[in-house]
Write the structure tokens for this entry.
Amino acid sequence: MERRAGEMENATLIEMNSVVNSHGEDRETPHPIHQENKNSVYGEPRIDFVLSYVDDDDGGKKAEQRKLFEDNLRKKYNLQLEHEYKSDCKTHFLKIHAPWEVLANYADKLKIKVPFMKSETKQGKGKECLDCLKRHLYPPSEIIKPERYYTAPFDNSKSDSFLIEDKETFFHPSTRNRIVYYILTRCPYYQGDQVNKNKTGIKRLLSNGTYTSAYPLHDCLCLKKAEQVLCESDRDLLYKHWARFRCFYKKQPLDLIRKYYGEKIGIYFAWLGFYTEMLFFAAVVGVICFAYGLHTYDDNITSKEVCDPDIGGKIVMCPLCDKMCSFWKLNLTCLSSRTIHLFDNAGTVFFAVFMGIWVTLFLEFWKRRQARLKYEWDLVDFNEEEQLLQIRPEFELKCTEKRKNPITEEEEPYLPIKEKCPRLFVSGATVLFWTCLVVACIIGVIAYRLAVYATFAGRIKNMIQLLESVVSPQQTTAVTASLINFAIILILNFLYGHVAIWITDMEIPKTHSEYENSLTTKLFMFQFVNYYSSCFYVAFFKGKFVGYPGEYTYMFGGHLRNEECAPEGCLIELTTQLGIIMSGKQLVANIQEIVLPLLKNWWTNRKRRGHSGSSQWEQDHALKSLSQFGLFDEYLEMVIQFGFITLFVASFPLAPLLALFNNILEVRLDAWKFTTQLQRPVAIRARNIGAWNEILNVVAVLSVITNAFIMAFTSEMIPRLVYLYAYHPGEEATMAGYISNSLSVYEISDLRPNNLPHFDANPTLFNTNITKCRYRDYRYPPGHPQEYKHTMQFWHILAARLAFIIIMEHIVFVVKFLVAYLIPDVPSDVRDRIRFEQYLVQNRLVNEELKMIKSS
């Protein structure tokens, strides 16, 4: 069986005796940075974890807690500790080393998989040739050099069965820091055998200020070429071949990322890289569709009629609001009418269908990629490990009652249903309240649009015609409302983030996976409403319940008239809304993720300027720590972006291109941030992207529906096709006359007094007496037996809209299910390897057991 793994070659610095397993795990002799302290009381052990604290001002209470905590670490858990002062004599460091006995015991307890036999499977020649052709797209061979080993859960009683060459380097650093952190979260700081739930774990000591930080050490990093110190390490390799932007076109060294940061961070970058690769195909098709609109820009008959002074210049439109809005000529929308053709054309229909298929392919191929990663990174049986062994310390502390686990038959804490239900009720009510608060804010923005539009219209009415065509009241209101809505989104996101964490803590989830999935669901549900509600309003509600002149519908007690769409439809406004929110979100996210940590670290380094020769633990102490929710923001940012490019992509074919550019930058910025600006996080195992998988599936299904409705009801494509093939005048099917056909006629004398402009109650416009005005609808003209009732063309268009939705959804869903059926979630070669390795592990361990029995 073949697996990829990173291997470091640095014979000049130290002799490397690596043992690499089939899943990409390197075990090396310690890097030089871990051997800095020549006077260590334990010789030169690897520093597995560092705790920092400052001198106490509370009468020694914190010092006493530290003493009890450290005594228990030494006596109960057999960890080796060493104190050291920072060069400024204010900060103290506690360096922690886990000896072999501790690592072996907890590796056995946590069932950590390690190599026990080398695989003889060799790489095929075809694969080697393919790698040769793609050598420019891959990092150097020393970063992704494949190694082949079979692995099995570590058994301390059968340690001779495993490939142990050096006990100090057998467990690689990410595994060591994970074991030590597991101990730190469960170590008490009280005396005696009586359990005190409120005095257990490093998390409580960090929250009450007893310790200021806890982190595993980074490897060294040589940022200056002039440095003479040879310190090449995994971190240095990641910086040179991953974090630099000049590597943007190369594949990420995922095995090395997983080895250094752990599976959870590794799988995030694997998903982000895969998502970015798939965006390339969507971006290409989107650019082609936009190019089609650009190519046919000058041939658009509809916009030509709008801009023609003899056609659009002679069509007088009814006022768009009461009293403050005047009558206006249709050719004032010339610019927006020409612009909308770039996004609303025949190519957009094809792109909407394509994106429905693309999102299915993306999810199916990611399942296969994820299955391969689970095998290569020893995560196939991870669920059992999580459920049986990884109970959250907070759950153990807060749950007083115990019951027998049906699988392990051991006593474990549990939360009774009578306590769990009230907690879930309060949590659900809180989420509902904040969701309603978002809806209330959106209604407030709608009220702003309705109230301010009239003000803008009143101010602009006296401007020259050219200025009106560029800065129309509708465009001005749409842009300012989008900016206000984006500001509200940021404020609510900040507040709700803290609320979501609080209510999730109140639920007391049992395992880390349950905690993360619960928090993920809450955050996404809120942000889904927060980010997308305004787009849903513009796409599906604005302009749909307006009424008609003389019978307008009103909101807020009949004081504000519902918004109308421009004669060319609301699609251009949806494009504007989508562009502002999507671009603004990415800009703010990059500032939060990059600029703020950079400024914080710069300020910290500036304060300690003058203290030369600082050690690695001092350098890492100055970095910003990654919170336990650090990846939530990363995933949330990308999934919200995924929603933008799938739910509303029919209105903006260039959205995948913008997302592609952002993600290419995002991968390298995140890599740079993790490598240089953040403390090394504790390695955490994860077999997949968690609840985000289900969220992506829900968004994918919903995107098919939303894009079908956008094309049917928001776009003008269906009315144009109905006119082209059923209502066009003459023998030849052309779009000539469509504008006049799509606008109904109303007798101005029938308008109610409150619908007329207050400054021109008996209107005379452009030195011409006006008796009729036009509005956007399909109704019979005055004087007709069914005046102001819907025409047959309206019902034909409605039927065509519904038929389009049914046809598009069925096409996409049939293709979706067909693709899902034809593409198995687990590649056949991976499935065979998993079965073969399970057989081999069982057979090997049974043989070892028999040998031990015979020898005894």
The longest strand covers residues 91-97. DSSP finds 28 helices and 22 strands in the chain.
